[in-house]
Amino acid sequence: MSFHIRINFGKNKPSARGKKKEKQPPAEPLPGVQAQTKERQAGKSERDYAAWILEHLPAELPAYARAAAEELGGRVQGLKFWVPGDREPVCFEYNAKSEADLQYWLFREACTRAALKMELRSRRQDELRYRFVMDHAEDGRWIYRQNPGYEYDTIHDSRKVWMELALRMALPVLPPEEGQAFVEKYERLLNNCYRTPRWGYDRGSGVFREISDSPRLDWNGVEQPAPGTVIGVDHP
Q1: Residue 136 phi/psi, 5° resolution?
Q2: For residues 105 and 140, what is the distance between their CA atoms, to the nearest angstrom?
Q3: Chain segment 88-105, per-residue pLDDT in tens
Q4: Is the residue at 33 inside a domain?
Q5: Residue 223 within any structural domain of the chain
Q6: 109: domain range?
Q7: Whether 69 contacts 61, CB under 8 Å
Q8: Is residue 3 part of a domain?
Q9: Burial of 18 (C-beta count, 10 Å sphere; 0-12/13-18/19+)
């Protein structure tokens, strides 16, 4: 992210008649601006990180997903990453410990962006694998469709697919500790609506498998689907 500050020292006072106007020395940049410039010039550039990411993505990745991964979505400044904000021009997003740390963090983010694009194109087919699918809301309650045949006896969660895709792309590239932390993060997020963990990641198959029949809860702790919220069977 480039920051530019214009310093206006005002116009020079008129010189006496017959005397040459003295040239003012160039203004020195403010200390903070100077530090930012040095930090921005040091280390890898955004282009370097983007090139490394594209080099390490799967070769068979669709072009539309690769394009999504290539967009960093923000600006690199030294070991910091900034993104556009809702209320401010930029918001601080990540402060890396090293160039390698920032590189792997950006790679995880890129894999996630690509996975989200891919999940959108397969969502309808994926919904059929679950017993219940959110249809619409009535009086503050979700109303569900029910599939006649299903693999998972729970409510469809689109996060499962894109998390699986992101992990399959990222784990072969990340160091073991980084990869394990990535798996644990997604396991925690995928299970955050269940009374006890229902999903566990299987590295061998690259998918989340059911490890319990724990019911899914809404944010008020009510088990879902609640009584009277299933509207019938949804035929493909």
Answers
A1: -165, 175
A2: 38
A3: 656 768 888 999 999 999
A4: no
A5: yes
A6: 41-233
A7: yes
A8: no
A9: exposed
